[in-house]
Amino acid sequence: MHRRIIAYHLDPEAHWVADLECGHGQHVRHDPPWQVRPWVITEAGRASHLGTVLDCRLCDEAAAAAVPAATSNTGGEIMTHQAEAETGTRRHVPSEGVDNWITHTDIASSDPGATKAWCERVMGWRFMEPFPMDGGEYHLFAYAEKGGGGIRGIGQGEAPHCVPYVHVPDAREAFRRAIGAGALAVSAPTRVMEGVTIAVVRAPGGVLIGFSGP
Questions:
Q1: Around Cβ 18, how many Cβ atoms within 10 Å?
Q2: Mean pLDDT across the stretch 4-12?
Q3: Cβ distance 107 to 151 under 8 Å?
Q4: What H or E segment, with its residue span, contains residue 103?
Q5: Under a CB-based contact definition with an 8 Å cutoff, are residues 139 and 148 in contact?
Q6: Dihedrals φ, ψ of 141, to 5°?
Q7: Using one digit for the tens of pLDDT, what is the confidence trace for 130-187?
Q8: What pLDDT digit, counting tens, does each position of 61-73 carry?
Q9: 1, 56, 163, 175 from 21: Cα distances, Å
Q10: Cα-based distances in Å from 131 to 81, 93, 134, 184, 187
Q11: Helix, strand, coil % (nearest 5) of the chain?
Q12: What CATH topology corresponds to 2-55?
């Protein structure tokens, strides 16, 4: 996804890293003939490239990993696994009375199995059979009739974290309002199945918030 450069910093090896508006960083080395960016070696050159758009791979990976959050059977959008297995399609049943509730939490762990076992032991969360996704299995859990989430492994360059997904009546409108109120776009509204759209923003203070709904 395209993200603007908003600042720079040096890594421990004295290479320049562009700070992107999404909160991720991306190296912008000048290492000819492989990487030619003479502008990065001067303060004026770096300043002239503020606002330049780079392609953020970490945002792409986060968007791909978020898909199960909108299609699980523990949150505001319920997926019937049997129907998927028999027909190859996903059918969901919208939950009622959960608008603006956190109905799904996506947990990215460096050891999903250990995290799952700990949650079962400490919180008593109920887990379903995991289903495969890129990078490993997704472990769905429920802690209430209309609340739950999933545990997955972290992607390359990703740190362990959690993203709460809020069920909203209109994901695109919620995303627009969030950006208007000062949030930064992380994952633009993406339709992942019929009637389900997801989006992720970085709210003031740096926290990630997801939206899931029609």
A1: 23
A2: 88
A3: yes
A4: strand 102-109
A5: no
A6: -135, 160
A7: 878 777 888 988 877 777 888 999 877 778 989 999 999 999 999 999 999 999 988 8
A8: 766 655 554 445 4
A9: 11, 10, 18, 16
A10: 10, 19, 10, 31, 23
A11: 25, 40, 35
A12: OB fold (Dihydrolipoamide Acetyltransferase, E2P) (2.40.50)
Q: Which fold has domain 60-213?
A: 2,3-Dihydroxybiphenyl 1,2-Dioxygenase; domain 1 (3.10.180)
Q: What is the pLDDT of residue 74?
A: 46
Q: Average of pLDDT values for 1-26? A: 86
Q: What is the token pair recorded at 50?
A: 């503020």
Instruction: Give residue-wise pLDDT tens across range 33-48.
Output: 667 888 888 888 888 8
What single-letter DSSP state applies at residue 35?
B
- Which sequence spans correspond to the domains of the chain? 2-55, 60-213
Q: Token pair of 26, please?
A: 């991306």
